[in-house]
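thought: fold this chain, then report.
action: predict
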Amino acid sequence: MDEAIPRELALTLCKEIREENKRKRFGFGKMQCSGCYWAARDDLSKLCIFGNEKNRGCQLVNKRYRTLYEAKQ
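observation:
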């Protein structure tokens, strides 16, 4: 988990997760994504994924990244 997530990949994963959560009626993920995107106010650099220097600020993106990319190593 020390490896940085490439910026473009982090944004892609974030977008995928946000779109999945939009379709949900309720849920923590839906609230987390909508709150994060609302707080960023169209400034992508303020999204939770960029909360630290390794683009590891969002637990939802971290989990998806670990599942898709780190498990294969």
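thought: worth noting. The mean pLDDT is 88.
final: tokens above.
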